Amino acid sequence: MDNRYNRHNRQKYSLKVHIVLVTKYRKQLLKGSIADDVKQKIFDIANIHGYEIIAMETDKDHIHFLISYDTTDRVCDIVKIVKQETTYYLWQKYGSFLSKQYWKKRIFWSDGYFACSFGEVSSATIQKYIESQG
Fold first, then answer.
1. Closest among 83, 124, 113, 116 to 15, alpha carbons compared
2. How many CB atoms lie within 10 A of CB 130?
3. Does pTM top 0.70 for this prediction?
4. What integer is the mean pLDDT of 48-67?
5. What is the C-alpha to C-alpha distance for residues 38 and 42, in angstroms, rounded to an integer?
6. Mean pLDDT across 107-119
7. Which domains are delineated in the chain?
8. How far apart are CA 38 and CA 27, in angstroms?
9. Which of 43, 66, 105, 110 lies in disulfide reach of 22, CB 3.0 to 4.6 Å?
10. Which sequence ranges are marked TM in the entry (predicted)?
11. Is 102 exposed, middle or buried (0-12, 13-18, 19+ CB in 10 A)?
């Protein structure tokens, strides 16, 4: 049996995406306990929503995570959930500190994100496979 793929309701799939979120204004806030809390909260979100965190690490102003997800999920929805829930959590826990960083409203992440999906083989291999059909 091939363990590289998930199976569910007559579907066989392997969906993985590398996501990068950046703090608003590139403020270097992802250090110490805030970084640890963000990572733990993302693990909690993943458990609740059925995602699998394959790898995750923070730098001072951004976080990278590699996540495996189901066919019914959309990357934009995953990002939305992660941003909303981590922002709410951080403002609950670090409100007085964050209000000195972001004086206008309760924000933490920049508006955009980076996402790159991939599979177990290169796009060149898939292209050759498709072209060889028929």
1. 116
2. 9
3. yes
4. 95
5. 6
6. 92
7. 6-131 (3.30.70.1290)
8. 15
9. 110
10. none
11. middle
